[in-house]
């Protein structure tokens, strides 16, 4: 399912216009992005938690040349599913 499919499904189930649903979805995604970029987390009880995790620096290898390269530490977004979502997927 892509974003357009999601907007269409929500609009059909809620009776809202596609334009309104898309606006709300874009606002939600923007808020999650803004919160994660400042180091916060978004917790939706029963659904899951969006957070950032830190990857430590490590040594990698260029597959073409075999030369070792240093990969710096970085922050990456992560999602941890909640219990209700896990149960629904089973």
TrEMBL record:
It comes from the Bacteria. The keyword Lyase does not apply. The keyword Cell inner membrane does not apply. GO terms for molecular function: DNA binding. InterPro entries: Hist_DNA-bd (IPR000119), Histone-like_DNA-bd_CS (IPR020816), IHF-like_DNA-bd_dom_sf (IPR010992). Pfam families: Bac_DNA_binding. Keywords: DNA condensation, DNA-binding. Belongs to the bacterial histone-like protein family. This is HU family DNA-binding protein. It comes from Paenibacillus hodogayensis. The lineage of its organism: Bacteria, Bacillati, Bacillota, Bacilli, Bacillales.
């Amino acid at each position: 399912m892509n974003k357009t499919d999601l907007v269409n499904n929500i609009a059909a189930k809620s009776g809202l216009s596609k334009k309104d649903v898309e606006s709300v979805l874009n606002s939600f995604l923007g808020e999650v992005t803004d919160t994660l970029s400042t180091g916060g987390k978004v917790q939706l009880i029963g659904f899951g938690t969006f957070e950032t995790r830190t990857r430590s620096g490590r040594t990698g290898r260029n597959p073409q040349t075999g030369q070792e390269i240093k990969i710096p530490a970085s922050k990456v977004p992560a999602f941890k599913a909640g219990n209700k979502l896990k149960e629904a997927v089973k």
